[in-house]
Every structure is written in structure tokens, then in C-alpha cells.
Write a structure and sequence with these properties.
The complex is a heterodimer of chains A (114) and B (112). Chain A contains no helices and 10 strands. With 114 residues, chain A is an all-beta fold. By secondary structure, chain B is mostly beta strands. Classes of the chains: A mainly beta (114), B mainly beta (112).
Chain lengths: 114, 112
């Protein structure tokens, strides 16, 4: 597609429920990233997929968070047993193999845990 | 570990005045640096990037930044700001690992 697509754009869930967030990167982009942006704060790195290499999961805040990517396409970020502190905008970005074109960000999924 | 530090959380400035938003990075390897802008309730937009070559990088909306290796800085500047420049600005960097790390952001508040 023309850009990075994320769905849903908004998600309201009850505390304790599981949620799945989806990211469709730009076609041909081998690298994909997930970030979290809490209200009024910066972007917190969560996880990074690069081609067939093992993902860099160093930013995942707890074992309730996991992410998968199918080949070089769609990625899903799953949050189990959601807590109120998980409320944030979750941003996905992708970039071309050479990393020379800049990182293209999706519009994000705004997650609200009530 | 690689890190990006934005020294000011908020920068108030009057319209038509010059502005500088400061960013320092730490990395032991080659580095690529970026500035992004986020307008209220909108997504991230790339302002400019430094990959190699000339240390003075010009971006959109009249912004420019200078890569200073000796001071490990990549400060963002604009000679004359407009009300419409009011936004959150993020400095980011990556090394050859490809992981993009962001600073905490600087809120630019342009006052009339």
C-alpha cells in the first residue's frame, strides 16, 4: 500500500481483556517497529522486526505484551490482561532495507483501557 | 547503549523570533539522526534527516539542523517561527542496528 496502515484506529477495552493491534507496513519494507506513546510523553520503543532475523524485543514492558510478524508483511501486537496503564497510542513504523528513506509511521491505534 | 536526549521539555517563543531545539545523542557507532514533528492530534511527520555528507541539513517548513560530531549534537533551528509551528518535536537516532530511538520530545509553544 501507499503508507503504513494500522487498525483499529481506536479501541476501548475493559481492564483484564486481551487486545490485538494490527499493522500493515509498506510493501517491500523489511523492517517493522512498534512504539508506545502515552499521553503527553515521548515514543517508547517496544519491538523491532528486521527481515528473518530474531526480533529485538528489548522494549516490551512485560510478558503481557507480545508481537508477531508474518514474513515481511502484517504484524500484530497483542496485549493480554490489559491494565489501565496500557492506555496509550500504539504506533507502527516500517522502513526500507537500506534504512535510507526514513521511517514511515502509521496513524496509530489509540487504546483506552477502562 | 544508544540514547537520544532532548534537553528542553518546553520552549516558549514569540512569533517571528528564532528558535533552537536541542538534541544530543550518544552512540559508539555510525549514526543516522532525524527530527520529527507531531501537530496536535496528528501523526508523526519527518522534518529532516542526517545520513551522511554535509553536516547542515535542510528540511521542510524552513527548519534546518546541524550535525556536530564533536559535540554529539543535532540541534534543530528555525530563523523565524510562526504560530503554526506550535507542535511537539522529536529527535531520533539509529545506529547500524536499525533500532530507532526517540528523545522525550520538546513542546514548541509559539506565542503571538
Amino acid at each position: 500500500g501507499a503508507g503504513v496502515s494500522q487498525s483499529p484506529s481506536n479501541k476501548v477495552t475493559e481492564k483484564g481483556k486481551d487486545v490485538e493491534l494490527r499493522c500493515d507496513p509498506i510493501s517491500g519494507h523489511t523492517a517493522l517497529y512498534w512504539y508506545r506513546q502515552r499521553l503527553g510523553q515521548g515514543l517508547e520503543f517496544l519491538i523491532y522486526f528486521q527481515g528473518n532475523s530474531a526480533p529485538d524485543k528489548s522494549g516490551l514492558p512485560s510478558d503481557r505484551f507480545s508481537a508477531e510478524r508474518t514474513g515481511e508483511s502484517v504484524s500484530t501486537l497483542t496485549i493480554q490482561r490489559t491494565q489501565q496503564e496500557d492506555s496509550a497510542v500504539y504506533l507502527c513504523a516500517s522502513t526500507a532495507p537500506q534504512r535510507t528513506y526514513g521511517y514511515t509511521f502509521g496513524s496509530g491505534t489509540r487504546l483506552t483501557v477502562v | 547503549a544508544q540514547s537520544v536526549t532532548q534537553l528542553d521539555s518546553q520552549v516558549p517563543v514569540f512569533e517571528e523570533a528564532p528558535v533552537e531545539l536541542r538534541c544530543n545523542y550518544s552512540s559508539s557507532v555510525s549514526v543516522y539522526l532525524f527530527w520529527y514533528v507531531q501537530y496536535p492530534n496528528q501523526g508523526l511527520q519527518l522534518l529532516l534527516k542526517y545520513l551522511s555528507g554535509s553536516t547542515l541539513v535542510k528540511g521542510i517548513n524552513g527548519f534546518e539542523a546541524e550535525f556536530n560530531k564533536s559535540q554529539t549534537s543535532f540541534h534543530l533551528r528555525k530563523p523565524s517561527v510562526h504560530i503554526s509551528d506550535t507542535a511537539e518535536y522529536f529527535c531520533a537516532g539509529t545506529s547500524n542496528t536499525g533500532k530507532l530511538i526517540f528523545g522525550q520530545g520538546t513542546t514548541l509553544q509559539v506565542k503571538p
